[in-house]
Amino acid sequence: MRYLNKIVFINSAHIPYAEVKVDGNVHFVGTQGVGKSTVLRALLFFYNADKLKLGIPREKQSFDAFYFPYPNSYIVYEVIRDANAYFILAFKHRGRVAFRFIDCAYRREILMSEQGEVYTEWMHIQQKVDKGVHTSRIIDRYEEYRDIIFGNRHEVQPEFRKYAIAESNKYQNIPRTIQNVFLNTKLDAEFIKNTMISSMTDDEISIDLAYYRSQVSAFEQEYNDVHLWYKTDKYGVVTVRRDADKVEKAYRNLLLITAKIKELISELVYAYQRDEQRLPLLHQELGKLKEEFERINRLISEESGKYNKQKDGKNRELGAVDARLKEIADKRKFYQQSDILSVVSRIEKEDFVKNEIENKKRYKEELTLQHKSITDKYAALTEKLQLELRTIEATCNEKKNLLQEVYNREVARITQQKEERNKEIYAHFDVESQTVDEKIQAANTDLTAAKSKRLIYQNTHLYANELELCKNKIDQLHEQHRKTEIEKEQNRSKINELRHEAEAERQKIEQELQAQPKDLEQKNENLAQQIAKLDELLAQYKGSFYEWLSTHKQGWQQTIGKVVDEQHVLYNNLLHPQLSSQHNASLFGVDVDLSHIERELRTPDDLKAEKQDAEQEIEENKKRIYECTTANQENIQQIENRYAKQIRDLRMAHQTLEANLLQMGQQIKVEQVKMQNWDKRNEEEKQKRLEKIDLQISKLQEQLSTFQQEKEKLRNKRNRELKACEQESASANNAKRKETDCKIEILLQETQEKTTAINNQINQLKIQESNELAGQGVNTTALQQINDKLVALQKELDFINNNRKRYFDYLSFKEEWLPEEDKKKEQKRKLENELALLDEKFRLRSSRLGQQKLQFETKIRDKEAEQTQLEKGLTAVDNFKLSMESTTSIEWTTVKPKTSTDPTDQVLQLLKDSLYDKLGKADALKQNVDRFKSYFSTKNTFAFKTQLNTDDDYMTFAQNLCDFIDHDKIEEYSRRLSNRYGDILQRISKEVGSINSYASEIGKIINDINADFHERNFAGVIKEIALRSQPSSDRLMILLNDMKTFNDEHTYDIGELNLFSSEQQRDDTNRGVTKRLFDFMVCLNENPNRSRLVLSDTFKLQFRIKENDNDTGWIEKISNVGSDGTDILVKAMVNIMLINVFKEKVSRKFGDFTLHCMMDEIGKLHPNNVRGILKFANVRNIYLVNSSPISYAVSDYKYTYLLTKDNKSNTLVKALITMKV
């Protein structure tokens, strides 16, 4: 039994000297202010050594100043330790209270002389202590003092372990409970829970949150960083991988464009040298073409002159034929208008008329034959008149014919003049039209050439050669593209094969190398269990049967040690062994010969050595595990490096192939665009040329039209002059005709008058004859009819005679002129055909020469264009070199030329485009890198550099990213992270399961406390004090329980955890793990100062107090229960029960000990309740130290002390009653 036996005040707290025994219940009585609370606080200080938890008001002196005002102020605590005692000396050292432990019972003379002088110097005190008695160093740390008092063996040096009144590493709630009783502090569940837990075990039952905080602090960063490589958008695209591929492609493209630029520089050097050599030769070729062009122009001019000359001759012949045909037409028209056919018909009846006249005459002669004399007479007269009439008519006809001949001669003269004038007009027209014809011919020639040229342009592709080159290049690119696609697929297959081989080899090595670490881990688990058992045995050694035998039974190893169980007997501290009066060697009355039993007993040192060996073996196994793991990782790394190099080379080749494919596709598009451009350029150029040639044709047509109009004007002028001449001739003819007709009319009138007179005479004669014949009986009527008929016939014969010349003229016209008309028409047709043939021949010759001219024009233009292009290209290259001197370091003289068929300016443009494209690709690389690195923070999991400034920084970043992708590092990170957090989740589950395993023990303690109250309750006013546990409302604990439940439900899934798996069946598991780890991390971050989750966090404790008819219900804090007295009573009872829980636990291991509880102003309690609380504490081996103004229930206390004040205000402590218990 260990307990505080007494407390001694020496010059302390206004107490000169007082010894107070506390080995039982103690009651201090005295009026207010005599020092009852002072004594109780000193007693409390023994247990809590906390000056701030003594209930000293702030306005009063501090503990150090009040209790230790002098250098020789002391408080002595004497402690009984089984059969002997030691005391603790409290004194002031360097301004604060300190302690010394002295291993002997307290004697007054140690600190005071016989004269009552209190020693100040330690050397005087030390001299008074018996030799061989241990005196400790100064203990000035209160925590160390409490560790010594309550036996925290882990923190206390071995020399101090003998001073412990208990033995526990988790005693902290005991002094708190004692001070809570004294201070009547409100009770809360946390404090009670901790007290209960500390009673269960000395080991700290908790989960190290600091460890998990360090493990999962970067979880969000690591998970988010790695998850980005698997996270898909709404289209199912992994954006980070896509952007990483973009960076890789941009990087490859930049390398390719750089190589292309070098190649283009070589081609540009070649093209420049080629054009320099070509330019002089081109000048010579151009000179020859221009000479030939001039020759063709000369031939065209000669051919045009020859044609015009021949055409003019034909045109003149045709004009003469046209004039003759017109004259024939005019004659025909004249005869038609004069009704010549009627005249011809009447003249051709001349014989008939003459016959008719003869017939009529004969008939008349027959009628007048009998009167022939009459008729002869009248006939002679009539004949005479008719002769005169015929003379007149003949004279008239002669004059008329003469007039007609004069008229005909004038007409002939006028006609001749007209023809001469016409010839002059035609000749003048020919002279004037020759120039116009030459212009027309030239225009026609040019128009024909222009139309031929237009037809050539229209049906010819101007850039057929360039187009053919593009087509050939596209065909080549398509073929290369097809071959590259095949090579790319083969390359991809090789990459997949290598990856499968690498994965298979890695898994094989992992399987081979993981076997040994698993065996070692299993050994470590077994050793850890063994160490736990050894720790349990060592923890049970204090107060065990083994310790008792070693102290009280010599040689027990050869007797009882050979037959008893080590764990259940030797190291059991609940057997309470005692020496028996019988000293024989029997075993429960049976004699057994134990000499043949060989058994090695393990001493605590053996256990410690065995534990040390096990721990050393664990460390060696860990080292071997680490070595195996390291070797595993090294071998895997070697495999990965070996395959990664091949895969990297293949990926590089793959990327190159993809870039080449892309470039080929682009080149195909470029060539197609070129073809389109050539087609467009052809159309544009053709359109320009056609527009130009159309404009030329239009101008030529306008010129031709102008020339034709000019010729038409000349022709119209000629026709007008011809018409004027014709009109003038016709007018002259008409005038002559009128003049002749007028003369003939006069002649005819005169003749008619004469004829009429003669005819009248003849008629008169005929009448006379008729009358005379009638007188003679002649038929005058018939005679008259014959005469009339003869007159008519004579008129017809006169008409024939008068128109006979016209008749013969018409016959001459018909016989001579009309046959000539057909010949003239045939001649005209032939002349027109000859002209058409001449035109066709000239057109063909002109077309041939025009085509030749066009060909030479085209060649000259092409050569000039080539010359211009070459000169322009050379100039552009020179300018480019000058402009690039300040921006690049190209050594043009050292560049090796590369053959190229492309024009220099095109190669230069490609180079410029490539340089510009390089800038664009460099910008694209930067943009892609910036976009990619924007996903990651500066402290990202992959150590991607996010601060990039120079181009080299971007290139290095891209290269590193390519290596990252080539080595498939993300899978390594994914696997490592998944394993790591899977292990964390399983460890959490294991630790939560471990800490939750104490729930039953806590429930047992609560049940024991409740049962203990019901069995040993002596305070009648308190009907019930009950406790119960409820599930914890701690958010972190709820989360950890959820994590454990989840882990238990998905044990097999998590065994092969992949946080980034895309397999559907693992999605829920992955999300569950991720969510819980996220929540765990957030919860830890929200509580940065929370380093551990202790057992008290795993449940919630509630109280229920029934005081008479008052029921608090289930509550978590006890602040005020009923009246002041009841409140004090309830809190004291609960605290006493808590102290008892701790005592019983420690007593089982260490042995029994007694504690004190101090209750100030116990007078607030009813005497029955005081008696009840004393019994409540005493049955639990706890002494109560109370104070009140008056004394009552004296028999319930072992000691009753009266405190008073003397005239110097010193407190006097006097023992009134000492009861024997």
From TrEMBL:
SUPFAM superfamilies: P-loop containing nucleoside triphosphate hydrolases (SSF52540). The keyword Coiled coil applies. Residues 467-544, 668-841 form a coiled coil. Keywords: Coiled coil. It comes from the Bacteria. This is ATP-binding protein. It comes from Hoylesella buccalis DNF00853.
